[in-house]
Design brief:
Largest sheet: none
Shape: globular
Helix content: 40-55%
Low-confidence stretches: none
Strand content: under 5%
Number of strands: 0
Length: 88
């Protein structure tokens, strides 16, 4: 048996515990953070686009980029991630 299996991950409190999730907030652009913040509101992508003075397709691209960077696939998951990361 290897001793490596007994060494906890950095930041873990006990052996075998999952390492804490560190949100990739710094990898999100300023605009992606703004779009992510707007996703929490009960508005359409069209409304977000209008508010930010860009096209709906631009917002769609930014939303896809946010989802990819934070590892989620739905708007609800993105909002939950933002809440957990302390962005909301």
């Amino acid at each position: 048996m290897s001793n490596l299996a007994l060494v906890p991950e950095p930041g873990c409190t006990e052996p075998g515990a999952e390492p804490p999730i560190e949100p990739p907030v710094t990898s999100l652009t300023r605009r992606e953070l703004i779009v992510l913040d707007n996703l929490a509101e009960d508005v359409t992508l069209e409304a977000i686009a209008s508010k930010l003075w860009v096209s709906r397709n631009t917002v769609k691209s930014q939303v896809r980029s946010v989802y990819r960077k934070i590892g989620v696939g739905t708007r609800a998951d993105a909002v939950a991630w933002a809440n957990a990361a302390g962005l909301r």
